[in-house]
Each structure stands twice: as C-alpha cells, then as structure tokens.
Amino acid sequence: MKRTTLIGAGVPRPDAIDKVRGEARYADDLAFPGMLHASLVRSPHPHARIVGIEAEAARSLSGVVAVLTATDVPGDNIVHVIVDDQPALAEGVVRYVGEPVVLVVAGTRAEARAAAAAVHVEYEVLPFVADPLAALEPGAPLVAVPSAAEGGNLFNRMVLDKGDADRAVADAVAVVEGVYETGYQEHAYLETQGAVAVPEELGALCVYGSMQCPFYVQNAVAKVLGLPLAKVRVVATATGGAFGGKEDVPSLIGSLAAIGAWATRRPVKLVLDRAEDVLTTSKRHPSVVRYKTAADADGRITGIDVDVVLNAGAYQTLSSAVLWRSLVTAAGPYRVPNVRVVARSVATNTVPNGAFRGFGSPQVIFPHESQMDLLAERLKIDRVEIRRRNVLHAGDCTSTDHCVASSVGVAETLDRAADLAHWPERLASIDAHNRSSSETRRGIGVACVLYGVGLGGKAPFLDKAGATMKLEPDGSVGVAIGTVEMGQGLTTAVLQVAAEGLGVPLDRVQLAPVDTSRVPDSGPTVASRGTMMSALAVLDAAAKLRERIENVAKAHKIPKREIADRLPEIAHHFWIENLDPAVEGFASTEPVSWDPATGLGDAYPVYAYATHIAEVEVDVRTGETRVIDYIAVHDSGRILNRALATGQVEGGVAQGIGFALMEGIGVRDGHLVVNGFTTYRIPTIRDVPLKPIVDFVEDLFPAGPFGMKGIGEVPLMAAHAAVARAVAHATGRRLTKYPLDPPRVRALLQEEA
C-alpha cells in the first residue's frame, strides 16, 4: 500500500470543531424520554453512626419518584475499584464529610434537590481522625474499614529494599536529609462528574457518562445491580477534562445513577454541581515524605533511605496503585545502588483520594529533586552537573533493579534543556539581578524525572487493549477502541495511526464512540498508556485488514500502489462477494517480573523521561512568585503529533505551577475548607510563561507503535519540582512544604538564612 506521512505530523484535532461550536454532547447534554434526575443526601460529619432516616416528608413532595437507601441496592452495596470497601450508599456508618447516604429521584433536578434537603438523617457523632500520622498513633480513632491491615488505620505497606542503605549512609562523604509535605490538589476539570443510566431491553442497562475507565464503571454497576457484565453497557460521552479524577469517582456516580434507574425503570441523570464536586470527589493524596540521600565525594549517589506516608482518606479506591508508584519512583531517574523505601497509605476520616496526573510520583519528586540540590550545595557541584553524573543511561538499572536496555533519553533531555537555557550564562544573569535589586529576587530550578508507562508490575492484567476495524462498502473505515478521549488528543493520534497502518488518507477513517460492547476490556485510560496501547491494538487490526484488502486487490489485478486510490472499488468487491470486512486487534505489554516482597524487578515495560528548567521572580515584599521563563524537554519516544504533544506539555506545566505555587485545601474538623473555584486558586493565563520552550528527544521504544511511549503524566511531574527548586534558589531557603504561596514564601524570606 502507498505510505502516508501522518506520523509526526501536526494533524488538527477532529473533535475541536464540535467543542468550539458547543456541539459536543457531554453527559449533562443528554436527554432521554421519561428521564428523571437524582440528588444525594450526604453526610455532614466526618465519622458518625446512622441512627435513623426519616424520608416521608421528601416522598410527599411534588415530582418525587423514589427515595432510596442502602437497603434498596439490588446487588452488593459495594463500589468496586481495587478493594471492595466503599459502599454506594452508606450503611450504618458514615466515614467522611460528603459520603452519600440517601439517593433521591425526581422529575427535575430542582425537585430532586428540594427532596434531598427534606430528608432527615439522625446521626450519633463518633471520634474521627483527619491526619495520617495521627491515624497511625496508638489509640487513634479507627476509621473502621474492613480493608485496613491488622485492624488499624494502615491500608497498605510496601517496601523496596536493594543493597544496604544503612551501610551506604554510614560510609558516605555527604548525607542530606529532609521532611517534605504536599497537600491536596483538586483536578479542576471544567466538566463536573455526571452520568445517565438508561434501562434497555431484555433486562439490560446502559450508563452514559464522563469517565476515563468505562470498563471500571461496567464492573461497578454490574456489582451493585447484581447483573452479569453482558447486561451492562457503558458509553463514554465527550469528557470535559479528567486528569485522573474520572478514574475512580465515575464508578460511584454511575452506580448511583444505575440504582435509581433500576428502581424506577426510567432513565436517571446524576450530575454534580461544582461545590459538591470539589467537596466530595477524590484529590491528589496529601503526603509526608522523610528522605535521606548519601553520596560520595564526586556527588554520585550511593544510597537513599525514604519513608512515604500518603493520606488515603476513608476508603482505598486507588490508593494501593498510587502508593506503588510512589515506591518505585522515589529514587527518580538516577542510578542508586542501595535503596530502602517504605511506603504506607493510611485511612483517615476524609474524602477518599485517588489518581491525579502522575499519581503518587509528584509526592516523591519534590523530595528527590530537593535532595539533589542539597547535595549539590553540600559538595559545591553545579546543580545540572550533579544530575548529569547520576542520571540513567542505557544498560543502567533503576532503583528496582530493572536494567533498561533502550529508550533511555534522560541524559539527552538534561543536556538539551541546559543548552536551551544557556545555563551558565543564565546563572550569571540571575546573580547580577539579585545583587542589584532590592525589590525582587530571581532563581532558576532544574528537575529530572522518570515515569513508568502503563500499569506495570502492580496490575499487569490491565495492560491490554482491544480495537475493531471495519471496511465499509464505500471504502471508508470505521474504528473502535476502548480508551477514552478526555482532552489529551487520543482521538487524533489513534486516527493518524489507523490511517498510517492501513495506508489510506486520514479523512477515510472514523472513530466510533467508546462503548464497552464494541471491544474487549481495554484497561483504564490512565498512566500515560491510552494512546500507546490503543495504537498497538489498532495497528494489529490494521495489519489484518490490510492483508485482506491486498488479497482482494490481487485477485482483481489491482496493483498495491493503487490500493489507496481504488479502495472504494475494493470495498465494493468485499460487499458483492460476501467477504468479511471486519477485524479485531489486540495488544498487551511485555510481561514484567516484579517481586512485591522486595520491591525489585522490572516494574514497567518502559519509562518516559523529562528535564524541565524554570526561572522565577519573587517579590520580596509580598512573597508573590512569577514564572518568567520555562524550558521543557521530553523523551517520550516517537512523537506521533508534535502539536498535541506540545499542548500536553504546556498544560502539564500550568498544572505543575499550580501545584507548587498556589493550589491547596485546608482541613478543619474533618471538613475541606473549599467550596469551588472562588476558594481554590488555579493558574490563569497570567500565571504561566507566555512563550515556554518545548522540545522532544525521540529515543525510540522498539515495542511501541512507531517507537512511541507515553507523555501525558510527565509534564506536571517535572514542572512543580522545577518551579519549587527555582523558588529555593531565589529565596536561598530550604523548601519543605507545598504550596509555595505568597504567605509561605514571605515567611521564608523573613527567616534568618
């Protein structure tokens, strides 16, 4: 077939026009005949026993069709994610503020909310704990979830043990240590959580919703309704942002809508408003990390000793997966012969926490990059140089003893970023500014990161994807996959891969909506795996369909070079000759070998890398920080679409700036002190650099589609650390806690050096 030139091209997004025009249909845009609306009665307490529920007043209100409690759940009252510990509707006890207790279904949204407000729940308030370190103390109130280990508040404990970390510390020329804290980060997606559950014929049900993981939702809904999976269909609607926040929560939202639809036998829509969404949905796990780094006289790391504690909240949801990534990422992209990491996730009476772009890695990247700068300062080695002496190269082994043979471009990203920043000259310019200015101080920071692409050793059974491909009688091609477009550009990239794999023009290929009945379980759209895995499945399907097309062309004496132009003619032969025009593709990653007892082994099939350099200016009087220049260089293998990849990096940089400088949520008496975007600051266009430099090192991954690997998570991971290290340089102070907002920075500047 004639080859196209689509791989690497900046093809425009086919979904952009509908979104710009307002024609894309999100969950709240859907309407079905007879549709009802749902609202929730939520717990006002962080921990309490449910004494009684009085709902007669609500049932008597206009438009109310059903008022449902845990006893009305037809199947198991459990929302399955990883561990079966979270109820759809609280049963006996509530464990966090905002936990759903009663589901009200009515004719309109206003009627449902009015009825929910009329439900009276009597509680017996119980002792609670909101701090993870306090939750580990003897005598702490028990969150009382069945999945906690040994009857306490410890959800998970994981270890990584390689070499002799104690000996490395004892023998080191330099040892630096610190305790680092990060707080909540809200996903701040534009579209709030929402789903519509619709009863279908033959006792089946379909859930339409905003989500990342349709197959997760399918499993959860089947469990709460007591149905076989084949009777539950899930369709992912246009999704207005997710960033990890629509990995776990849609299983709860979809289950609640499904319970309402099953009880009423009518379609039921449940959409959260902004305040409800911010207060009750998962966040980035707050963390406390104790970190000790040992090095020799040349600045080469000889060992690390790390303790990680994550606040999981009241239920596990995704905490074990998040914790595992903290464990295997704690050493960063560096050669470390002696490693000890102990990582724990802890139950508290707070909102359950889940995945957020980089899930589990930003919490340890802030410490490991801070430690690198402390080592550089102690040993009087330039900050870029000390990283250069320690970063991985092909043939080196990661902290888990995974010896990486290829696609290890971190050193090249470091050198390229330093060159683009003109590092020595920039340092001299910043020093000159700081000597001459009494009002502002400037600083520059560098951060190197590694990211395991996919789900790896923690959940290898999920690292798979399916695709279907059908040649239509007119020569167009329909494609279906199981991973979700949520703003990252997956649709565009997959269409490019499909067209390239078939050797046909892009406008001949159409991608179908994601529907669990179309393709096999394709795993979640998380961990920067969506494009890579679906592209592999699509290429598998394309190869099968291309072979059939070539056989038909040969039978009809059509030269290979003419197939693309004569595809409608070939498709017509398929139709009139009753030939099968549909194929299935499938992909899975190479097996990994990882030992949970030691934390050692091949944790992931491949790693993505990046180096970011940020320059900031700090107002000495107010503590306000501006990011005034930015360089980001990534190794994500072959770049399928440079425009999309650049957009991913720029968006991740904005989120990283927010995490480092402004995003934070206080907790008071178990309540999150936030009610929406008026009390939760996120970066605006005035808070991000206007002209960031973005570049790519394409160190190809042999097993990836056209040599690609993931990129989605990595920009945020590097960005917050680069910005934090720049603030440290500007202020000359140790930074140990996010966010570095004006009050905190001003307080740092007022400390004695």
Secondary-structure arrangement, i.e. CATH architecture of the largest domain: 2-Layer Sandwich
Question: How many domains make up the 3D coordinates?
Answer: 3
Spatial gap, N to C terminus: 68 Å
CATH superfamily of the largest domain: Aldehyde oxidase/xanthine dehydrogenase, molybdopterin binding domain
- Rg from alpha-carbon coordinates: 27 Å
- Main sheet strand line-up: 3-5-1-12-9-10-11
Principal-axis shape: globular
Largest sheet: 7 strands, mixed
What's the CATH class label of the largest domain?
Answer: Alpha Beta
What is the share of helical residues? 25-40%
What's the helix count? Answer: 19
State the CATH topology of the largest domain: Aldehyde Oxidoreductase, domain 4
The stretches of 5 or more residues where confidence is low (pLDDT under 50) are none
Structural class call reads alpha+beta
Strand content: 15-25%
Q: Work out the number of β strands.
A: 27
* Overall pLDDT: 95
